């Protein structure tokens, strides 16, 4: 089976994918949309993409692309502990405090703001497509006074020196990754819970529209673990609501709640019903 992931090799997504699918062929993609399109075009069987981080919240590129442009279902979730490391070319390891530019994925830069502001307040911050891309660039340009923020495995892969460990703003930092595809999967990672994710759009002229939609779940005592609004990209003030549901109630109750929302005039897109697998000990 071919499993695509947001690459390149040694990114956090690659680590999560490798642990979840150790015996499958892993295919890196340069962006989240390209990874999802790989499933659409049947180049790959499954895709693994980031969906949310403890510090920075949802990965909007994933949410928006799946809502607006794809019907690929979510069939699993992987939760990975995230530890950010500051790394430089080995020839610069003695002068690492003189670096003038730090490269990384925007989420990693945001997750390390306290460290950066304290130690490198004047450094230029350059976003890259992934943490591993940043590490590869630093490795390929050893003459520049630059550093990368990336996972430990990136230092090993690209022969860099870690000069500061675990620089993320909070110790308990985790990222959720969605597994996308139509095939059934069976992962060896322990299952912590079962969830369903849906997107609801309500009529604009309905007073208390969101309250009415949520009431369909509330009176049935269905546990919602997350509610988030995202622009519909039609006009200002129009949104869809992304909702995560803890699947603790009978399936019929969930189906009836969704039917009630639709009877109110709302539209419901079901992203998927899936198991959550948490990786520990990293």
- Overall mean pLDDT score? 91
List how many beta strands DSSP finds: 15
Biggest beta-sheet profile: 10 strands, mixed
Beta-strand residue percentage:
25-35%
Highest-level CATH class of the largest domain? Alpha Beta
Keywords: Amino-acid biosynthesis, Aromatic amino acid biosynthesis, Lyase, Phenylalanine biosynthesis
Domain ACT: 198-275
Pathway: Amino-acid biosynthesis; L-phenylalanine biosynthesis; phenylpyruvate from prephenate: step 1/1
Pfam families: PDT
Describe the structure.
This protein is α/β, with parallel strands linked by helices and 282 residues long. Helices cover 28% and strands 35% of the residues. It has 9 helices and 15 strands. The chain has helices at residues 12-20, 32-40, 60-69, 106-111, 113-119, 131-140, 152-157, 209-218, 251-263, and strands spanning 2-6, 25-29, 46-53, 57-58, 74-81, 85-89, 101-104, 124-127, 146-150, 160-164, 174-181, 191-201, 224-231, 239-246, 267-278. Helix 1 links the parallel strand 1 (2-6) and strand 2 (25-29). Helix 8 (209-218) packs antiparallel against helix 9. The protein is globular. GO terms for molecular function: prephenate dehydratase activity. This is Prephenate dehydratase.
């Amino acid at each position: 089976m071919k499993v695509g992931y947001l690459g390149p090799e040694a990114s956090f997504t690659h680590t999560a994918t490798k642990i979840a699918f150790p015996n499958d062929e892993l295919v890196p993609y340069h962006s989240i949309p390209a990874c999802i399109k790989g499933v659409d075009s049947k180049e790959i069987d499954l895709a693994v993409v980031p969906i949310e981080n403890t510090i920075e919240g949802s990965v909007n590129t994933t949410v928006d692309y799946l809502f607006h442009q794809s019907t690929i279902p979510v069939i699993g979730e992987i939760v990975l502990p995230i530890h950010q490391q500051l790394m430089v070319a080995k020839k610069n390891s003695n002068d690492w405090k003189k670096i003038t530019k730090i490269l990384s994925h925007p989420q990693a830069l945001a997750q390390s703001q306290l460290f950066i502001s304290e130690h490198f307040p004047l450094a230029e911050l350059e976003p890259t497509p992934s943490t591993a891309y940043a590490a590869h660039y630093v490795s390929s340009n050893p003459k520049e006074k630059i550093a990368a923020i990336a996972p430990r495995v990136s230092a090993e892969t690209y022969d860099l020196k870690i000069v500061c460990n675990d620089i993320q703003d909070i110790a308990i930092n985790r990222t959720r990754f969605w597994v996308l595809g139509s095939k059934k999967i069976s992962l060896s990672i322990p299952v912590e819970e079962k969830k369903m994710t849906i997107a609801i759009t309500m009529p604009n002229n309905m007073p208390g529209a969101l309250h009415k939609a949520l009431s369909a779940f509330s009176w049935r005592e269905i546990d919602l673990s997350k509610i988030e609004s995202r622009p519909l990209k039609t006009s200002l003030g129009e949104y869809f609501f992304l909702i995560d549901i803890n699947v603790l109630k009978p399936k019929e109750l969930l189906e009836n709640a969704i039917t009630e929302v639709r009877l109110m005039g709302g539209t419901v897109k079901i992203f998927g019903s899936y198991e959550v697998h948490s990786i520990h000990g990293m």
